[in-house]
């Protein structure tokens, strides 16, 4: 049986991870592309390629300094594209392997939706008002989170379904349930 592959995307701070947590609580299988990218970033060959691209000062004890990298790459679109390219093929390959072992629905939290083509059955986007989004990111990452630079690089897409996340957790549960019902996926 071929799995139902659903991309779950949205701007930084919109609540993608919270939606995935809700889905996992309800028994759905989820995977996080950012977590896959972190695993890929620990590979020595990727660390070496990143050091060549960015400079050795962005590597410490054989690991990438993600905070320092974030501080520079979002200000330079060309550099960001080159940096992200180090990860996208590996993330796609890993997703293909996970999907091949999945028998039902798989929700994929994908931070950079246009990173690569993938045979999505649906695309769900988590959205919230900008003031809510900015508040969440600053609370989580601090005032120097570079959220405006990150937002400037994220693109608006045309999703299959939208989950609005402006309220509390109870409101979000209801919105996720409505999306599942609309997709015919409620357990």
Summarize the helices and strands and which ones pair or pack.
Blueprint (H helix, E strand, L loop, with lengths): L3 E7 L5 H10 L3 E4 H9 L2 H11 L4 E2 L2 E2 L1 H8 L3 H24 L4 E5 L12 E6 L2 H12 L5 H7 L7 E4 L4 H14 L5
Helix pairs in contact: 2-5, 3-5
Write out key terms for the chains shown.
alpha/beta; 51% helix; 187 residues; 8 helices; Rossmann fold
Question: How would you explain this protein's 3D organization?
Answer:
With 187 residues, the chain is of the alpha/beta class. It has a domain at 4-34 and 89-182: P-loop containing nucleotide triphosphate hydrolases (Rossmann fold). The protein is built from eight helices and seven strands; from the N terminus they run βαβααββααββααβα. The chain has helices at 16-25, 33-41, 44-54, 66-73, 77-100, 130-141, 147-153, 169-182; strands at residues 4-10, 29-32, 59-60, 63-64, 105-109, 122-127, 161-164. It is globular. It starts with a strand and ends in a 5-residue tail after the last helix. The model has no long low-confidence stretch (mean pLDDT 88).
